[in-house]
Structures are given as structure tokens and as C-alpha cells.
Amino acid sequence: MKKVLVTGGSGFIGSHVVDKLAAAGVEPRIFDMVQSPFHPEGTVDTYIGELGDLEALTAAMQGCDAVLHLAAVADVGQVALDPVFAEQVNSKGTLNVLQAARDAGVGRVVYASTIWVYDGFSADQVDEDSPLGLPKHLYTATKIAGEMYCTSYAELYGVEYTILRFGIPYGTRARPAAVVPQFVKKALAGEPLTIAGKGDQTRRFVYVEDLAEGCVAGLQPQAANRVFNLVGTEETTILEIAEVVRDLLGDVDIVHVPGRPGDFKGAVVDHRRAEQELGWTATTSFRDGVVKYLDWHRETHAGERTAEPVADPSGD
């Protein structure tokens, strides 16, 4: 691979993927709605545009060997508030990415999906071959639609895909609405940490730099037309997240509020395929990742002590 387009390359995960591509000797190109705040103008080839603009996407893909498609409405709360917009970005946007790749002759589309796709399948443990049931949340529905478009374009038009089902990403550059940033801000402000339900929902978190390395690993030839779970090796409950933040930042209260409809209850997500086929595994423990986030937060948000709304227990 010589040049790879990263949709959503200005964002939380995408900006780290851009860095990992460059470190691997691959030239990254960003396609996003805004200039990356983490890459000064002129340092990374950047195309400003929207997923709804097929012509702009096709132009951005010219000369690229692959596309890492990360752009999406990732906040499940926003999806629930505006499902039509979420469908246009997540589902139709993915269709446009695949069509643009076909038109531009791009060899591979690596699609960022989510372990939320397993929520419709009742089991204690899931892997990449587990059947996907009908989704309970609109966000999940949009991501499954994107997966289906990937497999359809491979079958009909020969556009290679790699589907990466992300665990719950966290770490430096995270969006403020995610669970760890919310808890950290509240704890620093001395506010109670609010949890939806009992907090016994389990999550497979994955530190963002580990995840970005997994995205780059997904470009390997053996990943063609394959699905991989990119998750951490620990099962962490929402309550344990709050307890880790409390332990690191001080004695704050933990308050329980009513649960949220459509929430992913959690299952053990098998991660062995990525390790065996791609040589990838997450290496950062949840606690160490929170410490890294805290160090970054203190450097970049010094003086901020504003409490935030109830934390999104999906963490997605």
C-alpha cells in the first residue's frame, strides 16, 4: 500500500489511523467535513467534503490503493434523535464510499463497524461467524446495513472489503460525549458519576492507538473479504469504569439512573481471529488507557471543570 484515504480522518479514531499509516510508511489522505485539528493544514493531504457527495468522494480516492472508511454518526444518542440523518451518513454514506471506490478503481474498502451488531444474537460469547439478529437500536441497523453493502459490492462488482467490528474506543482525542471523558470531567468537577441502570452491562473497550494499529493491519492481503473483531482483552462493566475513574481522581459519588432502551447488554466478544490472521491484539489495559487519557486531558484541557450530562453507557 502506498496511499490510503481515511474518511473521518479528522476525528477521534481517524486522526490516530492517519498517524499510524504515516508511521508504517503509507501516505495518508484525509476526507472529512473539517480540517483535522490534530494535523496542521499542509501536513496531510486533505479533501473537505461530505459522504453524500459521490463526486467529491470519487475525486478524493483518485490514486489511492485503499479506503479506510471511518466517517459516521457514532453517538448513539444523536442517532436516536435524528435517525434519518444517521441513515444518510452511516448507511447511504457507506454505499457512496463503495460506489466511489468502484468508480475510482480502488482495491479495498476497510469498513469500520461495531460489536453492537451482535446485540440481536442471544449468546454468552460471539465471534465473527455468529449470526446477526434483527437490531434493537437504529445505530446498529445503520452499521449492519453498511456491512451488507460491503459484501454485496464484493459479490456484484469485485470491490474487496474488510469489515472491522470495533470494541468501544477510548483514549486521547476522544469526543466529549463518550463515557470515559464524561466520567473524567464530572470527577474533576466533584460531580457524581451517573450510570444508566445497574451498570452491570459489560463492554470490550479498546484503547484508540491499539485500535488504529488494528485498522492498518486490516489492509493486509489476507484480510480481503474477511471480518475481524478489534476488541480489548478485558471485560469491563460500566460500574467498573466509574470505579476506575473514582480511584484515579478522588472520592466521588456513583449514582444510578434508569436504563436506556436498546442498550447493548454485552457478551464476550472473541478476538482470536485478528490475532491469528493479522497478528494484531490490543496491548493496553483499560486502567492504563484511562491514565493515558487523563494525562492528555490535563495537558489539553487545563482549567476546565465543567460537568457534563449523563454519560453514554455505550461508550461507542
What's a concise summary of this model?
It comes from Patulibacter medicamentivorans. With 316 residues, the protein is an alpha/beta fold. It has helices at residues 12-23, 54-61, 76-81, 83-104, 138-157, 179-188, 208-217, 238-249, 272-278, 286-300, and strands at 3-7, 27-32, 45-48, 66-69, 108-114, 125-126, 160-166, 168-170, 193-196, 202-203, 205-207, 226-230, 236-237, 254-257, 268-269.
CATH architecture of the domain at 3-168 and 206-230: 3-Layer(aba) Sandwich
Total of helices: 10
Major sheet details: 7 strands, parallel
**Gyration radius from CA atoms, angstroms:** 19 Å
Termini, distance in Å?
A: 29 Å
Run of helices and strands: EHEEHEHHEEHEEHEEEHEEHEEHH
User: How many individual β-strands?
Assistant: 15
Shape: globular
CATH class placement of the domain at 3-168 and 206-230: Alpha Beta
How are the elements arranged and paired?
Blueprint: E1 3-7, H1 12-23, E2 27-32, E3 45-48, H2 54-61, E4 66-69, H3 76-81, H4 83-104, E5 108-114, E6 125-126, H5 138-157, E7 160-166, E8 168-170, H6 179-188, E9 193-196, E10 202-203, E11 205-207, H7 208-217, E12 226-230, E13 236-237, H8 238-249, E14 254-257, E15 268-269, H9 272-278, H10 286-300
Any overview of this molecule?
The protein is α/β, with parallel strands linked by helices and 316 residues long. It has a domain at 3-168 and 206-230: NAD(P)-binding Rossmann-like Domain (Rossmann fold). It contains ten helices and 15 strands. The strands form five sheets. The chain has a seven-stranded parallel beta sheet with strand order 3-2-1-4-5-7-12, sandwiched between helices. It has a two-stranded parallel ribbon with strand order 6-15. α1 (12-23) crosses α7 (208-217), α2 (54-61) packs across α4 (83-104) and α6 (179-188) packs parallel to α8. The radius of gyration is 19 Å and the shape is globular. The two termini are 29 Å apart. Mean pLDDT is 91; it is low at 305-316.
